[in-house]
Amino acid sequence: MKFGAHDALIVVDLQYGFMPGGHLPVPGGDEVVPIVNRIARQFENVVLTQDWHPAGHWSFASTHPGRKPYDIVPMAYGDQVLWPDHCVQGTHDAEFHADLDIPWAQLIIRKGYHIAVDSYSAFHAADRKTPTGLASYLRERSIGRVFVCGLATDFCVAWTALDGRAAGFDVTVIEDACRGIDVAGSLDKAWADMAAAGVERHSSAALGV
Ligand code: VGL
Ligand code: ZN
């Protein structure tokens, strides 16, 4: 497949926090860095996302006395998985992996900076209302197809893909360039939700990248 001016690659959260040794490690998370570097070379338009929480963020289990990571609690906007403290603004955990090598990336979307609302998706906070501005940015640049890769498949990648579809973009997840967390069946559910929404799922080999 050829990629051009109307295509964008969205690289989700390739930060130390999601790598082995990070505060919210995704198994095999570091394996996708060289794969994403290779794929990105085919895209002139690349957007990076960066999970970017203030200390004391409400998605952190440590903020809720008596709770532990991976508990699920109701919040005003729906059920929230509680996480270990991760990707706190300005910390090493929040930095991009040093081997990520896409200097021509054009935009970095930071998300999760509202203290009381999580934001898995690059398009909207978890309240499904507060936009990041990404949909308008892509539309203004006449981008119609987005390709999503990164971490984690079942949270930030899936929510980004689903919101991208809801915003009217053609969306493909490049599956070998993602890794999942899998909390309480979240990985199977994410793939099922994405399929039902019309998100395409391909390997980089099938896309010829
Ligand atoms: C993510 C959980 C919490 C992700 C971010 O990048 O998938 N998951 N914050
Ligand atoms: Zn987070």
From TrEMBL:
<dbReference type="InterPro" id="IPR036380">
    <property type="entry name" value="Isochorismatase-like_sf"/>
</dbReference>
<keyword id="KW-0662">Pyridine nucleotide biosynthesis</keyword>
<comment type="similarity">
    <text>Belongs to the isochorismatase family.</text>
</comment>
<keyword id="KW-0378">Hydrolase</keyword>
<comment type="pathway">
    <text>Cofactor biosynthesis; nicotinate biosynthesis; nicotinate from nicotinamide: step 1/1.</text>
</comment>
<dbReference type="Pfam" id="PF00857">
    <property type="entry name" value="Isochorismatase"/>
</dbReference>
<keyword id="KW-0479">Metal-binding</keyword>
<dbReference type="GO" id="GO:0008936">
    <property type="term" value="F:nicotinamidase activity"/>
</dbReference>
<dbReference type="GO" id="GO:0046872">
    <property type="term" value="F:metal ion binding"/>
</dbReference>
<dbReference type="InterPro" id="IPR052347">
    <property type="entry name" value="Isochorismatase_Nicotinamidase"/>
</dbReference>
<dbReference type="GO" id="GO:0019363">
    <property type="term" value="P:pyridine nucleotide biosynthetic process"/>
</dbReference>
<dbReference type="InterPro" id="IPR000868">
    <property type="entry name" value="Isochorismatase-like_dom"/>
</dbReference>
<protein>
    <recommendedName>
        <fullName>Nicotinamidase</fullName>
        <ecNumber>3.5.1.19</ecNumber>
    </recommendedName>
</protein>
<feature type="domain" description="Isochorismatase-like">
    <location>
        <begin position="8"/>
        <end position="200"/>
    </location>
</feature>
